[in-house]
């Protein structure tokens, strides 16, 4: 009897141990499964959603052209689960229209377009300085027009893309020599329309930037009557659409990183850069080389001098009635992206 009772107790104890072991195993598997599911869920939550970034080239010879040709921006953005949609504009005003409709996220603007855009409360911020612009703009005239100095422009027709850096430059030069835009006949033309008008003598002067200035003067048919000699700053700004930048600060920094990469490559590979620009813009390589020699691109923070120049330009545009709202330029400069790049 005792033997049977002992046997029964032994079997019962073994059964309990077996049951605990099974339940323990099931609990472990269930816990591991939940842990793995949780990890997968967290990974999905932190993974960047794919995004297409709209990058605009704003005329001229810019390192962004090199970055596009080399695929550097696509390579950098791929690390952040993003790709690039490129667009190109002749000048700032049409670019601003696309930015307002969220078709431009990252680009650069001359002082005129930057200030007019901020005055119109368009949603973008200034993220870096690309050039002080002192070599950017010129007033050129055909040599057969008999216009030798700025004062000779009184009563003459002048082609200019309104709202651009060239427009601001013209207003400053006219003011410097005792004239105003009321003393001349301004003809609003984008560069592709101003070029044939200038070459066929339909306008007396053209306020423009490179490569047009160097190309026209190199032909021997045009002369500069006001340009780098005036020492007028016309800062060029890198910009980012505000909502895009706030949601994707790492992409803004990546954009600046690639811009710097393109500058460094251009400086180290001048001959190849010259040929690339010449092929893309259909300009003589000699002209391109002269341009690159005279004006080196940069990427840096605004200095107080350049902030003051932008503020003075905004006040000039306001007094001339070209913009309607006062601009405090410094309030729109965000330096955190550039600072992040240097860390």
TrEMBL record:
Transmembrane segments: none annotated. It comes from Paenibacillus catalpae. PANTHER family: ALIPHATIC SULFONATES-BINDING PROTEIN-RELATED. It is found in: Periplasm. Pfam families: NMT1. Part of a binding-protein-dependent transport system for aliphatic sulfonates. Putative binding protein. This is Putative aliphatic sulfonates-binding protein. PROSITE patterns: PROKAR_LIPOPROTEIN. Signal peptide: none annotated. GO terms for molecular function: ATPase-coupled transmembrane transporter activity. Residues 52-269 form the Solute-binding protein family 3/N-terminal domain. GO terms for cellular component: membrane; periplasmic space. Belongs to the bacterial solute-binding protein SsuA/TauA family. Keywords: Signal, Transport.
């Amino acid at each position: 009897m005792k033997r049977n009772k002992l046997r029964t107790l032994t079997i019962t104890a073994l059964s309990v141990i077996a049951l605990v072991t099974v339940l323990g195993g099931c609990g472990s598997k269930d816990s591991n499964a939940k842990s793995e599911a949780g990890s997968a869920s967290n990974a999905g939550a932190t993974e960047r959603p794919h995004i297409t970034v709209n990058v605009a080239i704003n005329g001229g010879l810019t390192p962004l052209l090199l970055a596009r040709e080399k695929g550097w921006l696509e390579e950098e953005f791929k690390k952040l689960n993003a790709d690039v949609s490129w667009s190109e504009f002749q000048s700032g005003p049409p670019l601003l229209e696309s930015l307002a409709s969220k078709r431009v996220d990252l680009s650069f603007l001359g002082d005129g377009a930057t200030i007019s855009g901020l005055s119109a409360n368009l949603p973008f911020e200034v993220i870096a300085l690309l050039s002080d612009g002192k070599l950017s703009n010129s007033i050129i005239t055909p040599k057969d027009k008999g216009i030798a100095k700025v004062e000779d422009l009184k009563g003459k027709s002048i082609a200019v893309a309104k709202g651009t850096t060239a427009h601001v430059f013209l207003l400053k030069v006219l003011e410097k020599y005792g004239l105003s835009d009321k003393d001349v006949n301004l003809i609003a033309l984008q560069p592709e329309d101003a070029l044939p008008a200038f070459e066929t003598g339909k306008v007396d002067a053209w306020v423009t930037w490179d490569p047009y200035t160097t190309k026209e003067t190199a032909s021997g048919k045009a002369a500069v009557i006001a340009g780098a000699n005036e020492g007028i700053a016309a800062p060029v700004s890198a910009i980012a659409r505000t909502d895009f930048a706030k949601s994707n600060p790492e992409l803004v920094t990546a954009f600046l990183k690639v811009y710097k990469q393109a500058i460094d490559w251009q400086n180290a590979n001048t001959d190849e850069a010259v040929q690339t620009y010449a092929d893309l813009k259909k300009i003589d390589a000699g002209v391109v080389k002269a341009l690159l020699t005279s004006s080196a691109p940069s990427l840096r923070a605004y200095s107080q001098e350049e902030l003051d120049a932008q503020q003075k330009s905004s006040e000039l545009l306001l007094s001339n009635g070209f913009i309607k709202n006062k601009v405090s330029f410094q309030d729109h400069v965000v330096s955190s992206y550039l600072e992040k790049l240097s860390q």
